[in-house]
Amino acid sequence: MAHSGDSSTANSPISAALREIPGEAFPRLTPDMVARIAPFGRKDRFDSGEYLYEVGDREVDFFVILNGSVDVFESDGHGGHALVATHRQNQFTGELHHLNGRAVLVCAQTTASTSVIRLSRASLLRLVNAEPDIGEIVLRALILRRARLLDYAEGGTVIVGSCRSGNTVRIQTFLEMNGYPYRCLDTDVDDDARAAMESFHADADSLPIVVLNGLRVLIQPTNHDLAEALGITERLNSSHVYDVVVVGAGPSGLAAAVYAASEGLDTLVIEAVGPGGQASASSRIENYLGFPMGISGQDLARRAQIQAQKFGARFVVADAALRLDCTCYPFGVHLEGGNVVFGRSVVVATGARYRRLDTPESQRFEGKGIHYAATSIEAQLCAGTQVAVVGGGNSAGQAAIFLSAQARHVHLLVRGAGLSDTMSDYLVGRITMSPRITLHTRSEITSLLGEDHLSSVRWQQRGKEECEQAISNLFLMIGAVPNTDWLDGCVQLDSRGFILTGNDNNGVPKGSPYATSVSGIFAVGDVRSQSVKRVASSVGEGSVVVHSIHGWLASNVVTRKTADRPVGV
């Protein structure tokens, strides 16, 4: 096996679990593979006890062990470290953050005089693409190592707060969407959580708090605060001009990033929260090509992000696009954090969000019982209770089925006469047959009740008396509101705010069905007017738009003379 099990420091659940992983997570390369890796890096040697890298370091090199040994540790949450694995001859260090230059989650220390081949991030990416058999082994190992850290997170990052709090759920969602391991201590039921509050002098008004490595405390952090503290944010070069700036990392944006980067375009992706977009709210997508057993929206997004990073795409998360400057070339995307990124082309893939409920009390219960996603985080809040899902699309159907596994009963409310016109048949069949789901047709919510948290919901079915149920978790998956406010009038929109593309732009032929009214700016996925609101179609649009981008870039080269000229419309 590739890992050590005899160290007295390996006393945490994470180290015990990782020591049981089959060889795919800690493989041993063949001598031929090591010989093929050598030209991509350089040889180096370390004395016993030296650190190759430590938790929080960025742009960490990738190390192949020629002789000697290297211990890998994860923070135990108390200022110390727990052993994860020991790498020996012909094995390699690394986890997913080696692909993107973010702050690493583990540290590596030699236990003997050790010789290595070390590769920079750029060299590692060249290796992965030039030697596909080695690349497959390396990527599989990095993915498995991160998966185990997510499954068995024991120290590092700890959330302390009420799991019913909207802020706690937001932080959990942000970390999960970005594939970051954490533990959550629920102050409503967990004695350890109350002890943590006392230890870090936190009162109820300061919750939730996030404790990093048992040392640093963040009080009610924003997503941007978390990204900065954890090293999730990318370091940007303000003078760099990218070939493609993709705004939004839902299915369409991720597909655009994969295809653009794989075809050699310098690609940057900007995402306000984390990869997945609205699709990340889907617990299981079963009609997506190639996944007969289904796949969750978050898993699909994570795989796509890794794929894009493999080809060299960079990601900026927790820093939303604030404004698009389309009056000069290259285009400038202004970010909420104050940075500006420049691109020779822009792909708008910001998608749509679910509509808020049109009742007077809905704003009061935002984050206090109202949800817009149904993942494992929200499902934990529903165990043994009645819940309501509003919406007749596939996302609502998937949510109802997923939640019915934990909730005592699920009420599915739709305004129409049924589901067949708006939902896939396989979902309709499951909902109809489930004894734990009741479909309420021609129904609308009339009021929400509760003190500090939602406690009951009233709705009325057309022609019948108003009904009230004790419901503390309400899932809204209704309508679609496009995320186009940040465009600030830059491109033409339809009457609902979706982006007009192709010949819809006042009937003027644009040469591409994804071209907006401004040449060089494209729109794909749910944000585009008349698009099909399905994951597969969004992925198709994101992949096909790259052909149009190539045509635009070929005729619009950035030079000193053209860098500040207005863009043709």
From TrEMBL:
Source species, domain of life: Bacteria
What Pfam families does this protein map onto? cNMP_binding (PF00027), Pyr_redox_2 (PF07992)
Q: GO molecular function terms here?
A: oxidoreductase activity
Q: Where is the Cyclic nucleotide-binding domain?
A: 25-145
Q: Which PROSITE patterns match?
A: CNMP_BINDING_3 (PS50042)
The record's listing under InterPro entries reads: cNMP-bd_dom (IPR000595), cNMP-bd_dom_sf (IPR018490), FAD/NAD-bd_sf (IPR036188), FAD/NAD-binding_dom (IPR023753), Ferredoxin-NADP_redctase_2 (IPR050097), RmlC-like_jellyroll (IPR014710)
List keywords of the entry alphabetically: Flavoprotein, Oxidoreductase
Give the protein's recorded name.
Thioredoxin reductase
This protein's species is Rhizobium azibense
> What does UniProt list as this organism's lineage?
Bacteria, Pseudomonadati, Pseudomonadota, Alphaproteobacteria, Hyphomicrobiales
